[in-house]
Input
Amino acid sequence: MPAWVLNWLTKLRSSLWLIPTCMAIAAIFLSWAVPYLDVFFSPKKIDSLQWLSNMGPEGAMTLLSTIAGSMITIAGVVFSITIVALTLASGQFGPRLLGNFLRDRGNQVVLGTFVATFLYCLLVLRTIHMDPNGYTPYWGTLVGLILAVCSLGVLIYFMHHIAMSIQAPNLIAAVYGELEEDLTRLFPERLGMPEGNEAKKTLIPDLMVRIEKEGMDIKAGVGGYLQAIENDGLMEIAREQNLVIFLHYRPGHFITMGASLAKVLALGPMTDVVSQHINKQMICGTNRTQEQDIEFSVLQLVEVAVRALSPGINDPFTCINCIDHLSAILSQLCQRKIPSPFRYDRDGVLRIIAPPVTFEGVLNAAFHQIRQHGKGNVAVIICLLDGLGRLGENVERNEDREAIIRHVEMIQRASRESIQQEIDLEAVEDRCRQVMALLANRVNRSVLLMDKMSNILP
Output
């Protein structure tokens, strides 16, 4: 799916108006279609609907007016409760999580149900004639009554749903679910430079020097957070113009207007509109999004954890919950292939060099701020070490293992400076030794396995 389409769909998902608008349009069509039922299926001919056929124009008008007035009142109450929930979430969990509440389909459907029922009753009311031989919308009144009963059920659901959604464990689990989806989408099994392309790897340093000396700067035409890059479009430009494009930014970075967006090395004749075409492939906005930025979703959990550690909230249990989920997602990341910064076209020619997303970078984004704000809390420190231990059980790459070791060492140094009680400090030191031993054993097991494989292979 093109990046601009994904960006557009993300904005639509984060809007409160889309689903209510669609349901309101459906209500308009329903109000036009239901009167035809009175022509083809008169309720006077159906025994179970005799009570409906006895209702005159005044009764239908009173019933529909009551339903319409009640629905618009309840819609206002639902909107007010939603705003209160957003305010609480912004104050306690951080403004970045407002998007999760806005994307909540339950809240959107609830608001749309009341608006659609009100609009339907209003449109059916216009068809009623008060003269003795006037038209009474029997089926229209019945459908309005059914919609009112359904709206009461939706109201009960909304009260339960909003009470559950603002609870910290449920909110963290929802963010974690989105983070898992982003991880699967952004880190597929195969991406980047093919395995065994050693001959091309040796040419990259010389090419980088040439780009630095001969490359043409591409200036950013817009500013803001880089939300997504049209990778296919960028590759097509590089192929058509015979270019090598060295990007300076990746999704999530902030770009100032006029900054050097990329460097372009022409391997042949180049047109003057290359700068405009490359700028069009960069989608910028006022805030970061999760389309191609895995760190954005990670930072959502980090923000919840850091706020939980603030003196005003002082909730280490929520912080521990966030650390557990962060370690779970990092355990999956360290087992996936990290995309190579070198992108080749279908002919095997290097076309794009992009800033890489690394496991160490995501690990730093996940644990740095929590360690800095929670260095005096023994429970949080031990939970961080437990999370690093879980990563040590799954880590495969040596550079990722070294990154984990650096975090253990930083936690150990911070603990020695901030923890005064000897028993607490000894508990932390003991956990550090356990994690270090686990990482060392992991290395030994890997070396032993390689030795066994070398003896088996011919």
About this structure: The mean pLDDT is 84. The first helix runs from residue 3 to 13. The first strand starts at residue 216 and ends at 219.
